[in-house]
Here is the input.
Amino acid sequence: MSSTTGTLRVAVIDRDGAFLKVLGNRLDAAGWQHRILGGLVPVEELVAMKINAIVLDMSVLPPEEAWPFLERVCGMLPGLGVIVCTNESTVAQRVRGLRLGADDWVGKPCHPEEVMARIEAVVRRRRRQSGGREERGPLVVGELEIRADQYQAFVSGRSGDLTRREFELLQALADAQGSVIERGEIYRRVWGYEMAHGDRSVDVFIRKLRIKLEQLSPSWSYIHTHFGIGYRFDPEPVDPSAEAAPSAAAVDAGEDAEATTVERELEPTDA
Amino acid sequence: MSSTTGTLRVAVIDRDGAFLKVLGNRLDAAGWQHRILGGLVPVEELVAMKINAIVLDMSVLPPEEAWPFLERVCGMLPGLGVIVCTNESTVAQRVRGLRLGADDWVGKPCHPEEVMARIEAVVRRRRRQSGGREERGPLVVGELEIRADQYQAFVSGRSGDLTRREFELLQALADAQGSVIERGEIYRRVWGYEMAHGDRSVDVFIRKLRIKLEQLSPSWSYIHTHFGIGYRFDPEPVDPSAEAAPSAAAVDAGEDAEATTVERELEPTDA
DNA sequence: CCGCCCGGTAACCGGATTTTCACAAGCCCG
DNA sequence: CGGGCTTGTGAAAATCCGGTTACCGGGCGG
Here is the structure.
């Protein structure tokens, strides 16, 4: 379950040193990003933080501000998971908090692991209902537009006709923005399990993808090979002068001009 | 806040008479429909009940069945709010339950009002993203008019004679406006629970729907297949010329010739 | 009790996609 | 400059997928 959660961004509004310390450690251990806030924070700041959830101790807020703050937060950030984690409380207070929009209410003292499990539960539910993918705006790199909601890449509205695997591969590469990924890692991310020794699937799909990307956007080069390591995704304009002459020689040596991608402007050179 | 909740359907699996009585009263008072279940219930039955949330006392289940049951319920009904409400429990148990998919875990004794507030909180998370469109006006796409209040689609007043499932499928597709939806997601939205591996129901109903939509509005194409992924709903006028004269298509291929792969062996054809 | 409607399942088929192979081409290092 | 290992290529072989049709069984109204 937790594996599906991925990395979360959490804000904690509290002042209880011991609790903060131990919770902080756990959050770090889980790889979640977190930020401690000492008290009342403008809601706009929370918005800017792009967090998935907030853990709030009502008692650190000035009493007359606590409820309005909770209401404001829940109202302004409907997608945010709100877990109130506070000392003793009455049923009425808990009901009030939950009705105001809090997602959960835990009494202190509480185990940080449970707090995290509750955060997960809250975020999980929120994500599920959104159908999994929604806030993933189209990613634009070079001339390419990668649209997760379409499982497809486009250039000026033109579809790349990528198959599912090709698209997932593209996405995995693009997600790494600029860094080299090893084959094994690519395989794990796209295929979902460990690559068998000697499997060339990644290479083959890299090729298919390159072909389709070049058809789509011939003046850019997107996938770069790192010998002995893997591949790197990085859009860069291709330099036309460099390859015009040499490539022409290589190509016309063979016979299969049409089989591969395109008849470029290698023509001009010798024609 | 509670005003937005509307009427909910809740199942309670418990045997604590006093608790059931007082909770039942509150549920009635709130106008929520509820059903008391004495113990282990086949998940299929829960599916058929179309409930929004379930309140579960783990201790009424045989100990070796409790966790698997919780897991099964959460796995099969991802949209269902699951509130575990049980006697004493350890942190580890609560964490386990929450990680297994439970949305909340309350210890007994607890105030029924709080249980209800927690149900609301859980269900609220669920509805938020889905847009809570109750008063969905007739949706018009292409020639089609989708009327939720009639469970039916029309073209210039003529009914499509869609069955309930067909209509729900259409609606689910249309709600996604333009995005590709995976089969599993479609199934989840229309059937309400997790699709079993190898289930072809979606495909078959897509076909039935396509047939009826085509009868209704032959000059439009609404449902598009995305191989290996799912379907996309997007009304577009069908191109009559395309199929009328296939030979013509080949000739005028000039426009998108390079868009698709097209390894054209230019010479063989007429040479 | 009969038949029809509707949802759901099984199976077949053709086409799309993925995997696997064999070999050519490249890169690195000594 | 040559060998050894890595990557690019092309295509065949193996799978996977979706379209379609037939059929089964429950619910319902006559």
About this structure: DSSP finds twelve helices and twelve strands in chain B. Residues 200, 203-204, 206-207, 225, 227-228 of chain B lie near DNA strand D (CB under 10 Å from a C1').
